[in-house]
Specification:
By secondary structure, this protein is an alpha+beta fold. It is about 35% helix and about 25% strand. It has five helices and seven strands; from the N terminus they run H-H-E-H-E-H-E-E-E-E-H-E. The longest helix is centred in the first third of the chain and has 41 residues, at about 25-65.
C-alpha cells in the first residue's frame, strides 16, 4: 500500500497575513516600487508626448497669425511691393500723411509693342482729357514710363460723378512687348485740383519706384511682401487713417 502524500500547510488569507506577519520597511519599499513602476513608465511616455503636442499647438497658433509671404505676379505688382519695403539707402519707410491705396494690373495681348503706353492707358481706362491733371514721361531702366495725375469720380467709374466728387489717382504705365502694365495709387484727397501735399508725396512715390533696378527687361524686382491672407496689398498712410 502506498502512504498518503503529506499535507501542505494552508496559507493564511492576505488580511490575516497583513496583521500577523507585517512587512519589513525594505519589503514595503520594494513592493511600492513594483506597484509604482508601471505608472512611472507610462508617465515617461505620456509627458514628452503631451509637451510636444503643446509646443506644436503653440507653434501652429503663432504661424497662423503671421501673414503669408506673397510673391509679385508681374512688374506692376512688384513695384507696389517694393514701395512697402524700407528704402535700401536710407532705411526709411514710405509713410505719407494721407491715405494712399495701391493696385496693379497687367493687360496682356491687347496691343502691339509699338503702341505708346499713354494711348493704351487711355483706351483701357476710357479717359478723356478733362480727367488728366498732369502728364509726363520718364525713362526707367529699359522702359519708358508714362506718369499721369488723374481726376476720377469717387465711385471709380470714369464716366460718373462731378468734378467736386473726384478722387485723385497717380498712375504709372509702360509697355512690356505688347502688354500694358499699370500701377494705380489712389490718394485720399478730393476736389478739382491737387493739394501741395499730394504733389510732394506723389513725386516722392515716383522717385521711389522708378529706379533702374526695378525696370530690367525680363527680370522682376526681387521683392516679397507680408500681405493679408485675402491677397490685398497694404495701404500707405498714418495708422489712424487706415
Amino acid at each position: 500500500m502506498t502512504s498518503p502524500a503529506p499535507l501542505r500547510p494552508s496559507r493564511a488569507p492576505l488580511l490575516v497575513r497583513l496583521f500577523t506577519a507585517p512587512l519589513t520597511p525594505a519589503q514595503v519599499e520594494r513592493r511600492a516600487r513594483q506597484t509604482l513602476r508601471p505608472a512611472l513608465q507610462l508617465m515617461v511616455v505620456l509627458v514628452p508626448v503631451a509637451l510636444l503636442s503643446w509646443l506644436g499647438y503653440v507653434a501652429f497658433d503663432l504661424w497662423s497669425q503671421v501673414p503669408p509671404s506673397l510673391a509679385p505676379r508681374h512688374r506692376a505688382e512688384a513695384l507696389c511691393f517694393a514701395l512697402a519695403h524700407p528704402d535700401l539707402v536710407t532705411g526709411e519707410r514710405f509713410q505719407p500723411p494721407m491715405r494712399i491705396e495701391p493696385s496693379a494690373a497687367m493687360m496682356r495681348d491687347r496691343f502691339t509693342p509699338e503702341t505708346p503706353a499713354a494711348v493704351a492707358l487711355r483706351n483701357v481706362m476710357h479717359l478723356d482729357e478733362s480727367m488728366v491733371i498732369r502728364e509726363w514721361h520718364r525713362r526707367a531702366g529699359d522702359f519708358d514710363v508714362t506718369c499721369l495725375w488723374l481726376r476720377l469720380p469717387a465711385g471709380s467709374g470714369a464716366g460718373e460723378g462731378s468734378a467736386g466728387e473726384a478722387r485723385h489717382w497717380l498712375v504709372l504705365s509702360w509697355m512690356e512687348d505688347g502688354d500694358l502694365a499699370v500701377c494705380n495709387f489712389r490718394f485720399a484727397g478730393s476736389g478739382y485740383s491737387l493739394s501741395d501735399q499730394e504733389r510732394i508725396w506723389g513725386q516722392r512715390l515716383v522717385n521711389r519706384v522708378l529706379v533702374t533696378d526695378n525696370f530690367r527687361a525680363g527680370v522682376l524686382p526681387a521683392v516679397r511682401l507680408r500681405g493679408a491672407r485675402d491677397g490685398t496689398m497694404p495701404v500707405f498712410g498714418p495708422p489712424s487713417a487706415r
